């Protein structure tokens, strides 16, 4: 139950979070409704409450409660306990911060950023999904949301290296590249870790993992807990600085890429002393340098663009460049690339158990997209997308296949043994 202190704390946080752009966005909405058609949660349910513009209401109401003539004379509406309850479900469970609504907004309102500010406001008052908050706390206290401690990291890397006869260096002095991991990959999709190692080794990259800063996912950011977000960011930054690397690679994880590539410098208050690449960006760079040759992959496939990598990340073309010349039967979905539909689990929604029913409805949009291509194999470059879709696949009994782009590339890699 939210008490008066929490209501006041949330209201104060809302107001503190209202920078000039946020205030302008909150007041700029013309209620045209175009964003509804762009939102997968609205499309899957046709419920007006999922119209993205409605996510502006927390900022707008808090802003008006503290500013203007109505507030001056005590006549402005106040934020209530019911507001907080309604807003919690809206911004945590039913927004992936995917940014698709912004593409169609005539006012250019960045609702994803507003959702992030609203989550931070609610989190400051202790309001939010317990499982998402627990994932953030685990990251801070145990090293990762899934409890991947430095000791477990070392054990699993040794096991994977031995089983797959691949070099997976840890804390290697003199390395030029730091490869981070997603604990989802390490605990559920370890072949992805092995595949990244094989590809980097084949290209002759001097790289390493770090036991000091290895977890790429940042559930502090997703939960609206800025202190944890900074802690997770600093672990990677400090590990990279200690090793003296020039490059940090984010694995198959969408939000991890966005946080480290586009937000980390602001979080730590200084420029990053290294370059940040998503794994698809870096592998594309190596391919352009002539470091790879791949055998044909003849299975008909289509590609799912993770929102934070493509639409909000700018790396849309690199995955397709990697598949070019290898995937002999590649078919684009419609819409695709920067306009592609979200998987439904981004923005931390995958970690919220109570969101499962609506996520499963959203996944039907994706299966319809795949079916329209005439294929049944969906490739992506985000472990969270893969986990979200795999879970939904079982729930709705979809018969298609889900694949990782790095695993396909590693499987088709031409090596010296093939000569």
Overview of the structural elements:
The protein is mainly α and 419 residues long. Helix content is 53%, strand content 5%. The protein contains 21 helices and seven strands. It has helices at residues 4-17, 20-28, 34-38, 40-45, 57-66, 68-72, 81-93, 100-104, 111-124, 130-142, 150-164, 183-188, 190-202, 219-223, 226-243, 254-268, 279-288, 316-323, 356-373, 383-396, 405-411; strands spanning 177-179, 207-208, 247-250, 275-278, 302-303, 377-380, 401-404. The chain has a four-stranded parallel sheet. The N and C termini lie far apart (67 Å). The mean pLDDT is 92.
Spatial extent as radius of gyration: 22 Å
Q: Spell the H/E element sequence.
A: HHHHHHHHHHHEHHEHHEHEHEHHEHEH
Structural class: mainly alpha
Cross-sheet strand order for the largest sheet: 2-1-3-4
Q: Span from first to last CA?
A: 67 Å
Tell me roughly what share of residues is in helical segments.
40-55%
Shape: globular
- The total of beta strands comes to 7
The major pleated sheet works out as: 4 strands, parallel
Strand content: 5-15%
* SS element count, helices: 21
Provide the low-confidence segments as ranges: none
Overall mean pLDDT stands at 92
């Amino acid at each position: 139950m939210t008490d008066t202190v929490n209501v006041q704390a949330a209201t104060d946080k809302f107001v503190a979070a209202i920078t000039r752009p946020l205030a302008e966005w909150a007041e700029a909405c013309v209620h045209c409704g175009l964003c509804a058609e762009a939102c997968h949660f609205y499309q899957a349910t046709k419920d007006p409450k999922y119209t993205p513009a409605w996510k502006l209401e927390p900022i707008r109401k808090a802003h008006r409660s503290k500013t203007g003539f109505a507030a001056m004379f005590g006549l402005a509406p106040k934020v209530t306990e019911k507001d907080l309850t309604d807003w919690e479900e809206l911004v945590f469970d039913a927004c992936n911060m995917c940014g698709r609504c912004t593409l169609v907004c005539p006012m250019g309102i960045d609702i994803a950023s507003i959702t992030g500010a609203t989550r931070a406001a609610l989190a400051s008052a202790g309001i939010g999904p317990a499982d998402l908050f627990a994932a953030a706390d685990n990251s801070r206290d145990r090293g990762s949301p899934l409890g991947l401690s430095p000791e477990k990291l070392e054990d699993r890397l040794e096991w994977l290296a031995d089983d797959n006869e691949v070099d997976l260096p840890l804390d290697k002095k003199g390395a030029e590249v730091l490869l981070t991991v997603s604990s989802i990959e390490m605990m559920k999709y370890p072949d992805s870790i092995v595949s990244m190692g094989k590809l980097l080794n084949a290209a002759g990259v001097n790289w390493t993992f770090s036991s000091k800063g290895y977890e790429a996912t940042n559930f502090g950011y997703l939960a609206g807990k800025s202190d944890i977000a900074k802690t997770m960011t600093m672990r990677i930054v400090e590990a990279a600085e200690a090793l003296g690397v020039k490059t940090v690679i984010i694995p198959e994880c969408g939000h991890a890429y966005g946080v480290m590539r586009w937000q980390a410098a602001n979080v730590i208050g200084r420029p990053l002393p290294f370059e940040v690449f998503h794994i698809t960006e870096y592998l594309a760079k190596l391919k352009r340098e002539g470091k790879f040759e791949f055998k044909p992959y003849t299975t008909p496939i289509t590609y799912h663009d993770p929102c934070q990598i493509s639409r909000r990340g700018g790396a849309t073309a690199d995955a397709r460049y990697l598949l070019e010349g290898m995937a002999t039967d590649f078919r684009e979905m419609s819409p695709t690339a920067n306009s592609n539909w979200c998987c439904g689990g981004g923005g931390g929604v995958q970690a919220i158990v109570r969101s499962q029913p609506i996520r499963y409805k959203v996944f039907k949009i994706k299966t319809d997209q795949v079916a329209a291509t005439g294929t049944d194999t969906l490739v992506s470059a985000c472990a969270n997308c893969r986990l979200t879709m795999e879970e939904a696949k079982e729930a709705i009994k979809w018969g298609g296949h889900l694949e990782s782009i790095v695993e396909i590339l590693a499987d088709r890699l031409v090596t010296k043994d093939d000569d």
